[in-house]
Amino acid sequence: MTWQLIGAGSGLAGVDVRAGEGPQVVKAASGVLKNAAWAEMIVPESTHQSVEHAVAAFNQRLAKHVSDRLQAKEKICVLGGDHSIAIGTWSGAYDALHQQGEMGLIWVDAHMDSHTPQTSETGRIHGMPLATLLGHGYSSLTTLLHQAPKFKPENVCLIGVRSYERGEADFLKNLKVKVYFMDEVRERGLKAVWDDAVKHVNHHTMGYGISLDLDAIDPTDAPGVDVPEPNGIQVDALRPMLARSFADPRLILAEIVEFDPSRDREHITERLVVSLLQLL
Q1: Catalytic hit among 65, 83, 115, 136
Q2: Can you list the alpha helix ranges (DSSP code H) found in the chain?
Q3: pTM of the complete model beyond 0.90
């Protein structure tokens, strides 16, 4: 089955609005892909709304596209954009599939992305999407398409975390969300951690998804991100894990975010994203 690629070209909620250019740059560079085709390229509409309401409006549109394609039983990969676009991706997945059961989610990220408006020091919504999907945060975002939280805490895990603030760490700890910190990844190896994570998110669910923030990868392999953190996941270790999950019939959809072309060096990150799409 051909994967359908949805570009979610919004940098509204991140460090640099130019992260919204990432999907279009990748589309231009990707050429003809063996098992994937570009379906839509969604960009923010020009308005004078607040950031919160502009992000909500964009994610509402994205969620509807994702829901429609999943209901048509298509395989989807969403390309962002800053990580706030995950609110639309997974709200759409919930809309299409929640009657079949709970979803699991593997969140691969250097950060926890689990702030609420009360705990965030920057106020940037790209640091809040996981908390939002768990039902905490701006009501305009937690209630996209449905009032309910899109994931239960026990069905979510994070891999590769190595930079976070106390507020979001306490939030995830109180909810008992499983976190595989980067120290554990280095000690045990990514394969062992990935195997545990897949088992964890499949335990009580009808399937699972993957949200990959490129800053989870070591900056030597992926320099074109807005919030790079040293000592990350090596892409040579990550690639076979993604290939295996992309071929897993229980995988619902995948998401790759936070490529900022303006911060790339010699097209390194651009070529990396294209190479990941070639794994589909």
Answers
A1: 83
A2: 22-30, 51-71, 86-97, 129-133, 139-142, 166-175, 182-188, 190-202, 235-246, 268-277
A3: yes
